[in-house]
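I hope you will forgive my troubling you with a question about protein structure. I set the record out below, with my sincere thanks for your time.
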Amino acid sequence: MKKRNIKIIVHKFLCNTATTEEIEFLTKWVQKNKLSFQEDVQLNHLVTGLFEEEKAERLKRDLLENFEQFEIRERRNQMFNLLKYAAFFIGIIVVGTLFYLRGSTEKDLPQKQITITLGDGSTKEILNVESSELISSSGTYAAEQEGSKIIYKKKSGKTLKNSGPLVYNTLEVPYGKKFEIVLSDGTEVYLNTGSSLTYPVAFYDEGPRNVVLRGEAYFYVKSDSLRPFSVDAGLLDTRVLGTEFNISNYPDDQYTKVVLVEGSVSINKGEDPASQAIFLKPYQMASYYVSSANLAVSDVDVSSHIAWKDGILLFKNEDFYRITKKLERHYDIEINI
C-alpha cells in the first residue's frame, strides 16, 4: 500500500471513520513503522494548541508505546476491539487534559468569586480567608465566615414567631469552587461547583423549613420533628425531618437526582404537588428526567454521588459525556471533543 494511502487511513482512524479492515491493516503496519507513524500522525487532533510541547511529546510517546498492545482478534471480536480503541484514545484525552490543568496557574484560568445576595438586595463577594469575618448582621442572627464556610449564629435568646415575612439570602458558588454553609437551625449544606442556595436568615420557630437549590448540594439536616425540612430542586421537591442526602439538578443536565445516605425522605414532582410521594430508603436514588417525565427509584453505590464533597472526582460506569461535564464544572473550563 502506498504512503499516501497510509496517511489517509491514519487520518480516518483518528476521525473514527476507518473501517475494520483499515484498522487491522494500520495496527500491523505501525508495528514495523513506528517512526513513520509518528511523523504522519503528530497527534494534531489531540494535542496541538492544548498542551505544552514537552507534554505533547510525552503523550505521543505514550501513544506509540501503547499502540503495540492492541491485538487484532478474530472477526467475532471486532466490535470489542473497536470499543477498546475508543477507550484508549478517550483515556489519552482525559490524561492530557489533566496534565494541562495541573500545569496551569490561576492567572491562566481567571477565577470567579463566590457571592452572597442579602435580603436588602446588596451583593458581597466571599473571599477565601482563613480568619473569621462578619458577613451580615440583622435581627437575632449574624452570618460569619470561617474559611470556606458561612455560619449563621444566634445573637440573642429571642425567638422568631410566625409573623412577618422571612428574610432570604442567596449564596452562589461559581464553577471551579465549592463552599459550605450552616443554616440558622444547624443544618449543614455543602454546595458543589456551579450551584446556588436560597434560604431564610432564620427559620420560624414553628412550621416548615424551606430552601431552594439550583445545582448540586449535600445536606445534613438538623432533626426537628416540629419543623420538616424541604428542598425545592425545580423538578423535584424533597421533604425530610432529619437525614443526609445529595441533590443534583444542574439546569443543563435536564434531570434531577436525589441520593439518600441516611434517614428517610419523600419525593414529589415539583411541577405537580398533588402527585403521590415516593419514599426513599438509605442507598437509594430517585431520578426524574424531563424527556420522559418519569420518576424512578434505584439502589446505588452512594460513594460516586457524594465523593465530590471531599474534593474527589469519582467516576463509576459513567459515560464520557458525563465525565467531561463534571470536569468542566470542577475546573471551570470548556472541553470540546
In short: The first helix runs from residue 3 to 14. The mean pLDDT is 79.
